[in-house]
Amino acid sequence: MNKPFKKYHKSEKSEENVRAKKHLGQHFLKDVNIAQKIAETLTEKSYETVLEIGPGMGVLTQFLIRKHKCVVAVDVDRDSIAYLNSTFKDAHEAEITPDNFEVKEADFLKMDVLTALGNEQFAIIGNYPYNISSQIVFKMLELRNFVPEFSGMFQKEVAQRICAGPGSKVYGILSVLSQAYYEAEYLFTVKPGAFNPPPKVDSGVLRLKRKANFNLACDEKMFKDVVKTAFNQRRKTLRNSLKKFDLSVELKEDAIFAQRPEQLSVSEFVSLTQKIEADAI
């Protein structure tokens, strides 16, 4: 087992000066054992590149840079960035060098990830800011051709929603779009006491591993539109919620349109999209 990262000198940006900022949705993980468990959620022994979102004070980073060939940490908080650069990149330890660790001041939701990392495969991990966690997943899905694995910590409710199956009350847009391309697994729960400051809710750690065949047998833009439109009126049957697609009378008689969106599996949503595509011809 790797030892926690040892500070060899006083950082230029002291630990006391890095405070969690509410407007950034920050809750710094302080439990080193939990951090190591999260780092181990990536199943590959070593990825060429791992993108860490929201590294904060580096409690997860310290384990990632021991395991992977290149770790790129992205954060918008300048206090955190200064602390990470001072604490990690200036440390004199053979396994922690500037060669395999880079800090970028950037908003993941706005950054051109492929320009920053190159058109290569990379994993994504992080203790994700609760206030933008869903948007992070949606952007990751846009990058799915380059992201074989995605893991990390969310608000428990969001993690459960991503991993939920048909029939669940929390099964929705995030569930279907994530599971269309990835195998989703809820791994473990983290209590508020593991953070500083502690959030008011439990957190959940999940893993998304890209399917071997992640190309859908339908128009993927239409698939996304169908899923979002259906769940935007989730209490209605598909016959009523999908009116914008100008369905033919014959198609609306199909038994699938008598169901509500939470009853459909991913494969049934693909089939539904195929039917709508064919109807439009």
TrEMBL record:
Gene3D superfamilies for this protein: Ribosomal RNA adenine dimethylase-like, domain 2, Vaccinia Virus protein VP39
UniProt: S-adenosyl-L-methionine binding residues: H27, L29, G54, D75, D107, N127
GO molecular function, one term: 16S rRNA (adenine(1518)-N(6)/adenine(1519)-N(6))-dimethyltransferase activity
Domain spans labelled Ribosomal RNA adenine methylase transferase N-terminal: 34-212
GO terms for cellular component: cytosol
Pfam families found in the cross-reference section: RrnaAD
Domain of life: Bacteria
Reactions mediated catalytically: adenosine(1518)/adenosine(1519) in 16S rRNA + 4 S-adenosyl-L-methionine = N(6)-dimethyladenosine(1518)/N(6)-dimethyladenosine(1519) in 16S rRNA + 4 S-adenosyl-L-homocysteine + 4 H(+)
PANTHER family: DIMETHYLADENOSINE TRANSFERASE, DIMETHYLADENOSINE TRANSFERASE-RELATED
Protein name according to UniProt: Ribosomal RNA small subunit methyltransferase A
Organism: Psychroflexus salis
